[in-house]
Amino acid sequence: MASVELRGLVKRFGSFVAVDDVSLTIDHGQLVCLLGPSGCGKTTTLRLIAGFLEPSDGEIRVGERVVSSKARTLPPEQRNMSMIFQSYALWPHMTVAENIVYGLRLRKMDRDTIAKKLAAILATTKLEPLAQRYPGELSGGQQQRVALARALIVGPETLLLDEPLSNLDANLREEMRFEIRRLHDEYRYTTVYVTHDQSEAMTTADLIAVMNAGKIDQLGAPEDIYARPESEFRRALHRRRQRDQGHRARCEPRGVRRRNARGGRRHADDRPECAGRDPPARDPARDATARGSAEHAQSHRDAAGLSRHESRLHAGDR
Q1: 43, 67, 220, 254, 298 from 193: Cα distances, Å
Q2: How many CB atoms lie within 10 A of CB 152?
Q3: pLDDT tens across 91-139, in order?
């Protein structure tokens, strides 16, 4: 496990500055969310950390090592990082178990070690009953757990997640937020999580970096980001979240306290204005139909295999 430090990081594409003088320290075992709208530079920052892009200026340190600078960039397979993509990138012709141990086999580990690690991660991610299924036979949430298991089993120093829940329906997204946080609390890997969803960031993160126009607009704990927005951009995000999700916030009955995956702490949606409101009636049949349709569609997505970047990450230092 190692800390990650960005120092004056800049990335230009021609005259366009995608990442503009970003400095950020992520401590050992911390989960940091890069939060912002499309085009704000969050995914570019993540790809710079992974080694898929070379910085135009500044540097990235992992522990005591400089892994990226203007002069030299360490390739992804030598960084001991795992990355989870939006598309999950599962091999469609491999079973769940074969997908999970893919990185271990590339590292030439012996069969006994692989079997022990596989048994442990299957139990942790609750995938034991699905070990011999193929990705096309899984729901979106199950595919995401496979991607998480594959990323965790190799024991990375740093875990990178690029909008990992964006392809799931609303119910599965909420479930997987807590699953990601639970696994983080168990393994305590240094984690960088990119999302445009404020609810995801508030639920999962230890620290949130709000990005806008390639810069970090505000940095702080979820409670501080929510309660004390420091810029007009952040205040606009705050107002939009209240408007778009106000109906959900208002439906909490009096006295209810929703808790996040860390336990005991109030969820960011437990706002004072929620008190005393009764929830609207739900239609279980409609919810089940919508959820089933989404999972059916997700299970038949084109899982065309690992991207070039994913393959390089799994290759390791062979």
Answers
A1: 9, 19, 15, 33, 22
A2: 23
A3: 999 999 999 999 999 999 999 999 999 999 999 888 999 999 999 999 8
